[in-house]
Specification:
2 copies of one chain form a homodimer. With 345 residues, chain A is mostly helical. Chain A folds into 2 domains: 132 residues, Orthogonal Bundle (Cytochrome Bc1 Complex, Chain D, domain 2), CATH 1.10.760.10; 141 residues, Cytochrome c-like domain (Cytochrome Bc1 Complex, Chain D, domain 2, Orthogonal Bundle). In chain A, 35% of the residues lie in helices and 2% in strands. Chain A contains 13 helices and 2 strands; from the N terminus they run αααααααααβααβαα. In chain A, α12 packs across α13.
Chain lengths: 345, 345
């Protein structure tokens, strides 16, 4: 599998431990791991940006990566489930693209090891972008001269391949990190960066046991080898109103991929970064608000009923995880003269 | 009706006449007319840009103005007809937003006098953005604090109204002009800005009679008072293969709005600027390529069968009308914390 360049965070962790903050928490590194076989450079990132925003990667020219993972709205579409070509609805909530580069496996069920592997999925998924085959994707992009040129510049002769489409998109996605949240500034020593309520929430996270899973720089679990997703069962406690109300058992999670009994209702632990901005919540997007999501998690994972104050503090903590979205440049998509590659759809 | 500040182009026209180029042609002014009751300023343009890109203006949060009038792809979606909420297809090809500010009436049938009037339509159209009422639009935006603030800053207290949504969007759209096409540079004196073929095409435009309608700075007819669209019949000659093949009589055009007999198959003359980049062609998007569109126009409007060379020259001329798209800044859309305004859709 692909090697990862690990960011050294030991110094921060030591500092955190000294100031009495649990080692479960670490600031978000400025750069995500980069696989050795897909180094980043400006041309590749720009090509990836174009592809990410290009609806011509969908069969009828209506859906781009950005349609569901919208970088203008926190890397998601803020819908329960996304809408693909022909108005088709998906089965799961679109995870945010921001900081996805820090995850050791992609998709809710971790079925893709890398961003590169992930990017190949939706383009060919019949209810997402609906392209019939890799060949049709390549044939279409070959009709757009600037793309052919750009792929050759970035990847060499014959560079326009399905693998390289995914590599370029992944390179762009590795720029989508949101550092310097109030909580990161707090971890780096600014005591006033977060509210007292958020500080109580932070301590509650550990006391209740949330940090058993939501730890590490992305609050999505430990830094595992690429492809080895950090999975947990959800819901654990099923005999409560929430499981029924929000239909949390209908989707069997990772089991749908592996068909192994032990993977039933196992999910990749999602990041908590920017969670205040990525409503609605959970794999099926069934929970509308962050405070309700906190109550659901406490009940289904810890069998705890939280007080109003506890919920408020936890939400204040989660709100402190909203980072700085890097300024986004709008691509100018390559043109075709006198015809459209989706004009016959 | 709204007054317009007319751009003075007399000097250019005189210059053109002197150099032997027909007065049918004028360079595109750098600025479009601005209505006196909606002056432009930076805050209003920025608010309009946000609204233009915000899919939360559609009922299910999937369609923005930019979905169909995509400024990354020449102000259109390059599809025969656009796709709105729930996968619904519209009846007509989405006109480009670029240089729409120069048109004296909007929509293919001219049913809106101004960009402001136009912007109000698609949001409430059930097959486009599908919002059930102006009130629902306003109620939704009121849940987004930054929008409330921005409307107050731009329009004063209580500024968040449906009319002002349209005003902000129109102000942004008036920045979407594409000056300095090769043909504009030619008109301004650069003899080498366009090819010899394009020059022959330019002369053919006049000789054949295309410029009877496609004249003026936008090649969409004379500069008429706001709301008084420049309408022409299409197709005029109906006894030919094209009318049947491309189903050009199915849609009765302006008649669908006025129900007047004389408006049957009357259409607002579309701009030719950037036409090489806005395939497919005509009100129903039925013609895939620019050369075929040229043949169709010659036959249906002038009863002429063009030679291959004539088509080639006309296409070369039309390609010289591709202007410079101004660099686009990606908006960061206002956020809601802990919930989504489209999360229950």
């Amino acid at each position: 599998m692909k090697a990862r360049i690990k960011t050294q965070i030991t110094g921060f962790v030591a500092g955190i431990a000294l100031s009495g903050i649990a080692v479960a928490f670490e600031p978000l590194p400025a750069q995500p791991p980069v696989p050795v076989d897909n180094p980043m450079n400006a041309e590749k990132i720009e090509l990836g940006r174009m592809l990410y925003f290009d609806p011509r990667l969908s069969v009828d020219g209506t859906v781009s990566c950005n349609s569901c993972h919208n970088v203008m709205t926190n890397g998601t579409d803020n819908r329960p489930v996304s809408v693909g070509v022909n108005g088709q609805k998906g089965g799961r909530n679109a995870p945010t693209v921001f900081n996805a580069a820090f995850l050791s496996a992609q998709f809710w069920d971790g079925r893709a090891a890398t961003l590169e592997d992930q990017a190949k999925g939706p383009i060919l998924n019949p209810i997402e972008m609906g392209m019939p085959s890799e060949k049709v994707v390549i044939d279409r992009l070959k009709k757009i001269p600037e793309y052919v040129d750009r792929f050759e510049t970035v990847f060499g002769e014959g560079g326009l391949t399905y693998d390289n489409i995914a590599k370029a998109i992944a390179a762009y996605e590795r720029t989508l990190v949101t550092p310097n949240s109030p909580f990161d500034r707090y971890l780096r020593g600014d005591e006033n960066a977060i509210s007292e309520s958020a500080k109580r929430g932070m301590k509650l996270m550990e006391k209740l046991g949330c940090t058993a899973c939501h730890n590490g720089p992305n609050l999505a679990g430990p830094d595992l080898p690429t492809g080895q997703g950090f999975f947990q069962k959800f819901p654990i406690y099923t005999d409560n109103e929430y499981v029924k109300k929000y239909d949390l058992l209908a989707d069997k999670g990772r089991y749908e991929v592996t068909k192994k009994e032990e993977d039933k209702h196992m999910w990749r632990v999602p990041t908590l970064r920017n969670v205040a901005l990525t409503a609605p919540y959970f794999h099926n997007g069934s929970v509308q608000t962050l405070d309700e999501a906190v109550r659901v998690m406490a009940k289904t994972q810890l069998n705890r009923d939280l007080s109003r104050k506890e919920v408020r503090d936890l939400v204040a903590f989660l709100e402190s995880l909203t980072g700085e979205i890097p300024p986004q440049v709008m691509p100018k998509l390559p043109q075709t003269e006198g015809f459209s590659v989706v004009g016959d759809q």
